[in-house]
Amino acid sequence: MDSTSAPVQAAAAAGHDLSFIGLFLQADPIVKGVMILLVVASLACWTVVFEKIVRLAAAKRQAKAFEAMVRKEGHVDTKQDGIAGRIVHAGLDAWRDQDPSESRAERRDRIERAMKGALSLEVKRLQGGLPLLATSGSTAPFIGLFGTVWGIMNSFSSIAKSQDTSLAVVAPGIAEALFATAIGLVVAIPAVMAYNKLSGDVARIQSGFVSYISILGNRLARDRGPQARAAAAE
User: Fold this and answer.
1) How many whole angstroms from its chain centre is CA 136?
2) pLDDT at res. 233
3) Is Cell membrane found in the keyword set (predicted)?
4) Reduced 3-state DSSP string for 72-119
5) Amino acid 142: pLDDT
6) What is the predicted pLDDT for the residue at 224?
7) Count of domains for the chain
8) What single DSSP character describes residue 15?
């Protein structure tokens, strides 16, 4: 190696900013596009996570209120709000639509189906956005890997053009490429963890409602007293 190569390599290394912003700005347009896509996916995932935290907290409160109402024998509270309120009103609507020829078991099944149908609609709303977390968690590493492969290909092209295999020539391009994979992992890991946690919370909320729907359905099916009629008339 001649005496001029060391200063040239030092100048090449100094000309590259290895900070996060610098790696992004110096990246190939395709690698840069991959990074932007991953950042947008990350923002979308965190938006879903915070929205779900708020909604699931409210759903848990409503599930506890529904449980407390069902535990009070002979009392059907039509002033329940949110998910619990829609389930109660679905049950009372089914209670009003009585057929004298049906048995108590048939009436109970019909009331329970109406309440579970209302619950299913609410659960679908709670699950909205979770597919985005699952998709981001499974695809973000591969999208980042695509950016890495593309960036490394460009680094090898630079080596071929410059005919210089020194680290100063290839390191910046490889660093930019690996940065794309790092962003992909930063997107994927929280998305997978959040999906598992939030989907588990939704399942627990649904299970809690289903348990007490059966109790309330049995009560409505057998109770034809004044209090039940008053509740149904509201």
Assistant:
1) 9
2) 46
3) yes
4) CCCCCCCCCCHHHHHHHHHHHHHHHCCCCCCCHHHHHHHHHHHHHHHH
5) 92
6) 54
7) 1
8) T
Cβ-in-10-Å burial (0-12, 13-18, 19+) of 111 comes to: buried
What is the domain range of residue 126? 39-233
| Any domain includes 24 | no
Query: In this structure, is residue 53 part of a structural domain?
Result: yes
> For residue 20, what pLDDT is reported?
57
The answer to whether 227 and 117 are in contact (CB under 8 A) is no
Of 206, 24, 231, 201, nearest to 115 by C-alpha is 206
Angle at which helices 130-162 and 29-71 cross, to 10°: 160
Let me know if 13 is exposed, middle or buried by CB neighbors in 10 A (0-12, 13-18, 19+).
middle
First-to-last C-alpha distance (Å) of the chain: 93
pLDDT at 229: 47
- The conformation of residue 164, written as its DSSP 8-state character, comes to -
Residue 23 domain-assigned (yes or no) = no
Fill in the amino acid letter for 115.
M
Q: If the chain, 234 residues long, is cut into consecutive pieces of 10 residues, what is the mean pLDDT of each piece?
A: 43 52 72 88 94 92 86 68 83 78 79 88 90 93 88 75 65 76 91 94 90 82 54 47
Q: CA–CA separation, 40 vs 23, rounded Å?
A: 18
